[in-house]
Structure formats: C-alpha cells, structure tokens
Amino acid sequence: MKTDLELALECVINIYHQYAIRKPIDDYLSKPEFSQLLKDTAQPFLHDTTPPNLTEDEYIQKLFSQADSNHDGRLKFTEFLTTLNLALVDAHKRSHQDPGHGHEHEHEHDHEHDHDHSHDHSHSHGPRA
Fold it and tell me: Residues near 16 by Cβ (< 8 Å), separated by ≥ 6?
C-alpha cells in the first residue's frame, strides 16, 4: 500500500503531464498552461499562499519567472518542481504568521520552554534511567 506522500508525488507527475500535453503538445508547461494548472488544481492553496501585496495572477507570474531558470518561457518538469518548492515555502511561512491556517504550535507541557519555531521539538525532560 502506498503512503500519502507517494500518492501525492505520483499525483504531481500526473497533473504536470495532463497540462504539459496541451497546446503545444510537448513535455513543457507554457505560462498559460502553468497558470491554468494552478487555478484548476490548487485554487484554495493558491488563494491562501498568495502574498497580500500580489494578485493571484501576479503571484503565478512571479513563480513562473523565478522557476524558468533558462528563460525560455516554458517550464520543464524540474523547473515546475521549483515552483512547487517556492509555493510550499511561502505556505509554510504563512502558516506561522496566521494562526488560523496550517499547523498550530501549542504544546501542553508542565514546564516552560522557549518557542523559537526552529522545529527542533526534541525535548529531553524527566528522570533518566
């Protein structure tokens, strides 16, 4: 049985191919194909991830431009992965800024500790054997 992450990664590949084979039929995402992919398949995520100072279209343009490393006006699969990385980093940052989104960092411990969001939550407390 496949894990959730395995299924998600397979889904990313399948969605990429589904949009890359549109017009023109190739294995690249044009800017319109990329934009349509995000709007069709990731609208809520896109809405939550778009920085407050940008429109969704401006954010899509920014992601596309940052990922198009060879500046050929289209994204190959590895460049598309860069856009996912950028969007996920933005989403993670926003999850820390907006308590209504993402994961919460509330811990119920009977001790005080500083909470610097470094994600190193390994606590060594209590008596040692």
Answer: 29, 37, 77, 80
Confidence (pTM): 0.69
* 80 Cβ contact partners less than 8 Å away, ≥ 6 residues apart: 16, 29, 34, 67
Q: Where are the alpha helices (DSSP H) in 21-76?
A: 31-41, 43-49, 56-67
Q: At 14, is the pLDDT very low, low, confident or very high (cuts 50, 70, 90)?
A: very high
C-alpha to C-alpha distance for 123 and 129, rounded to whole angstroms: 16
pLDDT at 62: 94
Phi, psi values for residue 105, rounded to 5°: -115, 55
Contacts 24+ apart (CB under 8 A), 100-104: 101/48
CA distance 61 to 55: 10
Dig out the tokens for 84 from the structure. 């996912």
